[in-house]
Specification:
This protein is of the alpha+beta class and about 375 residues long. It contains nine helices and 27 strands. The strands form four sheets. Strands 14, 15, 16, 17, 18, 19, 20, 21 and 22 form a nine-stranded antiparallel beta sheet that branches. The protein has a six-stranded mixed beta sheet with strand order 1-6-2-3-10-11.
């Protein structure tokens, strides 16, 4: 049997916010949680926050990250803290950290997986890991690929990139009482009940296909040998919209890039225009890939949640973790509340907590996998 608590704090003092979170968790669960997942605005002093949580509820395992919008079934704020806590007689939890993503992503993945308990353990039919990473370190797709190979594809992966309230300057992951930059953290979850992972976006191609003729990791240089910014400029002119290279975010939030894959389109959010008319993106864009400029249609949170619930094989949902892109929240404004309500409706009596992230992580059978932008990822835990 699994019992959960989803809690939220708007308290500005970091130590007090941590104590509030910890006290609510302890009271709701009637004791110490086996695992606690924490999301916190970059406005907080993370060391004080984590100390407050540990002083009041002493979680056996704590992981989490800085974020860019924090929510639960009952609250959504910026500059806040949200958390999910779990006690379970059937699930086993373990935390693992991988450092120095910028220096060596493969070594960071090996460091993380070396501390997984289930890689060589065949007693559990379901193996999953919540993965939170410093997406600003770059190459998150490559890191997820290393994790997949090192775990021989046996683990469902879900999570996202740590945020810093849309400043895109410095992000942290949480590992026990530590707040660590340039790192990734995982909550390993071993169970004989299934965990459902749904991943969906609602964007559709708005242009004919382009081939990426030049790119340098997250810098998109040219499409069909045309400077990337000129392609977006010409598309904006066709729509009668404004595309200001000095302030392109208002346009990019509604017109993102989709990489064609056999399983669907992986989204990449453009962030800025460089002096050479190249475009800086939020994640890697491979040379030679086929891409489209994409337009939003809506409904990704609901369909992702339904897909996750369907994977529970008849088990009733107890609690969910929900991740969506900060770009989605900025684009939708207060309408993002409607997306949260759809998650709540699809879960029925189960609660959820989560945050807005800098990219989303998902690896689940039958769905497009890897590192995404502007994509809803929902993980549902059974009772």
């Amino acid at each position: 049997m699994t019992k959960s608590a989803t809690v939220h704090s708007k308290t500005r003092n970091s130590l007090n916010a941590g104590k509030e979170i910890g006290a609510k968790v302890y009271q709701s669960l009637g004791g110490v949680p086996d695992a606690l997942v924490l999301f916190a605005s970059s406005r907080h002093d993370f060391q004080s926050l984590l100390r407050g949580v540990h002083e009041t509820c002493q979680p056996k395992v704590l992981v989490g990250s800085s974020s860019a919008g924090e929510f639960t079934s009952h609250a959504f704020d910026e500059g806040a803290v949200s958390a999910v806590a779990l006690r379970s007689s059937e699930m086993r939890f373990n935390a693992a950290l991988g450092r120095d993503l910028r220096g060596d992503r493969e070594a960071a993945a090996k460091e993380m997986v070396r501390n997984f308990k289930g890689v060589a353990n065949h007693d559990f039919s379901s193996k999953a890991a919540l993965v939170l990473t410093d997406a600003l370190a770059g190459h998150a797709d490559d890191f997820v690929e290393h994790l997949t190979k090192l775990t021989v594809g046996e683990y469902q992966l879900f999570g996202g990139g740590a945020g810093d309230d849309a400043k895109f300057t410095r992000t942290h992951v949480f590992f026990g009482t530590e707040a660590v930059p340039d790192a990734a953290v995982a909550l390993e979850i071993l169970s004989n009940k299934p965990i459902g992972v749904g991943v969906r976006h609602s964007w559709e191609p708005a242009t004919p296909p382009f081939r990426v003729t030049a790119a340098d990791h997250m810098r998109l240089i040219s499409l069909n040998n045309i400077p990337a910014a000129h392609v977006f400029r010409d598309f904006a002119a066709q729509l009668g919209q404004t595309f200001d290279p000095s302030d392109p975010i208002p346009f990019f939030l509604h017109n993102t890039l989709g990489i064609a894959t056999p399983a669907g389109f992986k989204l990449r959010v453009p962030l800025s225009v460089n002096e050479d008319a190249s475009i800086q993106c939020a994640a890697n864009v491979p040379v030679g890939s086929i891409v489209h400029i994409m337009s939003p249609r809506g409904g990704s949170a609901l369909s992702a949640t339904q897909a996750a619930v369907d994977q529970l094989q008849g088990e009733k949902p107890e609690v969910a973790l929900f991740f969506d892109c900060v770009a989605t929240r900025l684009r939708m404004g207060r309408e993002f509340d409607f997306e949260l309500e759809k998650v709540k409706d699809a879960l029925g009596e189960a609660s959820y907590a989560g945050c807005n992230t800098y990219g989303q992580i998902a690896r689940s059978e039958g769905q497009f996998s890897g590192f995404h932008n502007c994509t809803a990822v929902v993980a549902v835990f059974p009772k």
